[in-house]
Amino acid sequence: MIDALALAAELVAIPSVTKDETRVVEFVALWLVARGWNVTVQEVTPGRGNVWASRKGGGVTLSTHLDTVPPFIPVRAEGDRLYGRGACDAKGIAAAMMAAAEQLVAEGEERVDLLFVVGEERGSDGARMANQLPATSRFLINGEPTESMLASGCKGALRVSLLTAGREAHSAYAELGASAITPMMRMLLELDTLVLPSDPVLGPSTVNIGTIAGGTGANIVPGACEAELMVRVVGEPEPVKKAIEQWVAGRAQVSYPSYTPAQRFRDVPGFPSKPFAYTTDVPLLTNWGTPLLFGPGSITVAHTPDEYVDTAELRAAVGHYVRLVRALLDA
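Given the sequence above, the corresponding structure tokens read:
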């Protein structure tokens, strides 16, 4: 039997901030080759690749990502927790999936694949490439921290870019110019007046002001200001765009650099479920089968200095993944 906790510690100890995943990809690929898996490393960009491990195919793919957000945080075990960058998002999950796949094979079930992608934390270039692989699975279990519950759904994400224009001038004669920052500030202060769609399962749409930048120096009236918002959408994007454009009312240029749709997932008897507000790689892996979302750990500690996963929950996840795979194969 594979000790998922020990394997997770090995994975977390390898730095793999997005765009620098080479070492962890090599570790995972060699680990799987040594255990008899048919392994393909699909190049995403030079030196970076997805890991696809298969046997018979035609069944269930267990998938998550190997990259992490910065900065690297070394692994440490303390009490009943494993700490470090990626402990719950998502190297602990990868370890549990690897252990579960090995257990299934040892029990004679070879209709299980493993897919570990890069780049999830910055644009998901790995998942986009992985969808070009000749997948044969009927189901995809994607791994993100879901507190060991099945996700009933996930909100989508609509990125919104706002740009206001002004007229530059010497700040000693500010009356000769027009600030681009002032109208942006006024507009953003009205953001809570937006009425956005809600959903009975996924809840309300939410919006966050992620970045704001403007001007070139304190002694220059700013000629441009840009803000970037992220809307967590619960349905189609058009009603959200309409509400944003009514709120802006011509005071800024509006564009939508990216969009990820909201997701709904199937139930599996015996597994409790609830919705989650974050987005995943699932919408980009459409060729890998009917999707589900499940993983140990809490998203509330992911991306934080004290990221961790409970050790008992991590080890229990191995059995949960085995049961999920068997339930889906019997469906």
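The mean pLDDT is 97. Try to locate this feature in the token string yourself.
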